[in-house]
Amino acid sequence: MIKEKKNTLTWTQLEFRLALIIFVALACVPLIIKQPYLIHIFIMALLYAYVAQCWNLLGGVAGQFSIGHIMYFGVGAYAAIFLFTKMSISPWIGMVFAGIMAAILGLFVSFLGLRYGLKGDYYALFTLALSQMLKLIVTNIKTLGGAMGIYIPLKGFSLVNMQFRTKIAYFYIALVMVVVITFIVYRIITTRIGMYFVALRENESAAEALGVDTTRYKTIATIISAVFTGMGGTLFAMYTMYIDPEITFGLGPNFEFILMAIIGGKGSLLGPVVGSLILKPLAEFTRAIFGGGRPGVFLMIYGALLATVILFLPNGLMGLLQRSYRQLSVSKQKVINQGIQEIDTTR
Amino acid sequence: MITAQIFWQSFINGILMGGIYALVAVGLTLIYGVMNIMNFAHGEFLMLGMYISYWAFTLLGIDPYLSVVIAFLILFLIGTLIEKTMIEPVLKGQPLNQLLLTIGISLFLSNMAVFLWSSDNRSLQTTYSNTSFNLGNIVLHEPRLVAFLFAVVISIVLYIFLQKTKIGKGIRAASQHKEGALLVGIDVKKSYMIAFGIGVACAGIAGVLLSPFFYINPTVGAAFSFTAYVIVVLGTMGNFVGALIGGLIIGIAEAIGGIVFMPSLKQVISFGIFILVLLFKPTGLFGGQQ
Q1: Could B229 and A125 be called an inter-chain contact, meaning their C-beta atoms sit closer than 8 Å?
Q2: Is B106 exposed, middle or buried (0-12, 13-18, 19+ CB in 10 A)?
Q3: How many domains does one find in chain A?
Q4: Which of A78, A159, A251, B106 could crosslink B41 through cysteines, CB 3.0-4.6 Å?
């Protein structure tokens, strides 16, 4: 009898290959597209993809309702910018410092949240309240610029200062960061630790009963996600050259990051990337079409899209693809099995 | 220096504001208690209430206190419609999705307001917007007092409605035990719809009551949402009386906090209370042990 061949690729492997194709294609973008405005849109899309991917690890894979996730972003942005503007320390070192600060915040959040067993809605409200409290605190600290924010001065174009003459450098930095975080997420979801994360999401008490140290893995997920989100805050600040509490701690960008991951497909490898690459240009174009006079349009579309996706595609765009891939491979498998049976019977 | 007069003045202002907070929170806690959903769009319904009052006044010359009825009807209708078409389908799904859905609704509504009415601050100038009278050496701002009284009366009416009427009893039954309510022939889906409608209408009414003396803009809802979450958690999620008492506590705490610290930091007080309650007594003041 001929051995039944297992399906060629699992969905995650396929997604990983798709990711490689998308990243290679993205790497070629600056060779083809030269207009600074279009490059800007791509940089923004990549930055959002990056943060959305960080959120995805905690919110999508591990299923923790980190609804106030922007606090890690804001802390990272302010930490590095403070060092850069006040002490002229290179943003690259600042980025590491940002990661450390975000990790401390993440440790604090998970310590408090877990120590007191906050779950679901309570955890969501807790993170949301913390993020808004940090925003208020930063708004009231004079050395951090208060509500006026901080303009980041040009200290000379150089790699050390993370300030470049062309936008293309930022494009590649952002792309590398997206690739790195996506690879990390891939490594995590294909290994044991990722299984633990998924177990946390699907049924926490069952996971605990089976011997998963839920507290430990929640903390790990939070810290990994926080560190990388904080580093993203640094790059964002260096690119836009301006930060204020609303941009770095506000609810608008906060939900925008999360939305990218949800619409693209939470818990999947490519969801946040695909979501951002579709939605961010959409936002920029609607902004360009409607102009400054009608600033609410793209967020209105986002809101409607979010509600629609939740209602009709709870697993986002990648979830839709995954479902059709499964159906396809199931029918393919049927054909193969039928063929094998026919061969067997004719022998 | 904080004199006794400033203290009592803030205290009274806190109570008056607390009454409105309580009305917003009562709506939120009703929705949570019945459907087990945290409505992240709650403040946006308050904002809609404000705009209804604003436009009714500027275009049609309708007094804000008459708009209470209009806002109630419109928001009740919007609320039931949203519940029927959007909330109901996800009730059985993952809790995260329910949360995200209401976030989507909130994004949509607040930015629809930006789109339609721009993000400028507006204010409603009625003949009584700035009237006040003295009680001893404390100044009572009339619109705030009226708003407070309205809020209290509406909360009491709602309480009686939930206790005495058939629909109200149905809503309470659905919140206590869904299957049991279904078994005794209560239309649980209808109860959900009505509860959600009433809940968001409460927020809308609060918006109308605020409109004579509070700035109106599309993002005003977010601040009130937060305060409402704080109150609802403080007064135990789903507890009606708890929301009323929690509202007054937070109102007073913010007002006193505003004079002790900088006024811009007064929200830190409620966030601080919130985080402490979440950590040490997440079941709230009136919750038993979990």
Answers
A1: yes
A2: buried
A3: 1
A4: B106
Which domains, and CATH codes, for chain B? 13-116+140-280 (1.10.3470)
Of B99, B262, B275, the CB nearest to A129: B275
Burial class (CB in 10 A: 0-12, 13-18, 19+), B281: middle
Alpha-carbon Rg for chain B in angstroms: 19
Residue B216, strand partner residues: B122
Reading the block at residue B266, the tokens are: 């007064």
Question: What ipTM was estimated for this complex?
Answer: 0.85
**pLDDT (tens digit, 9 = 90+) per residue, A81-137?**
999 988 888 999 999 999 999 999 999 998 888 777 777 788 888 898 889 889 988
Collapsing DSSP states into helix, strand and coil, what is residue A289? Answer: helix
**Of A8, A23, A10, whose CA–CA distance to A183 is shortest?**
A23
Which domain does A63 fall in, by range?
11-346
CB spacing of A129 vs B100 below 8 angstroms: no
C-beta atoms of B268 and A296 within 8 A? no
Cα Rg of chain A, angstroms: 22
Q: B-chain residues within 8 Å CB-CB of A302?
A: 104, 107, 111
Return the closest-CA partner of residue B175 out of B164, B162, B165: B162
Name A50's Cβ contacts closer than 8 Å, sequence gap at least 6: A174, A177, A178, A181, A228, A232, A235
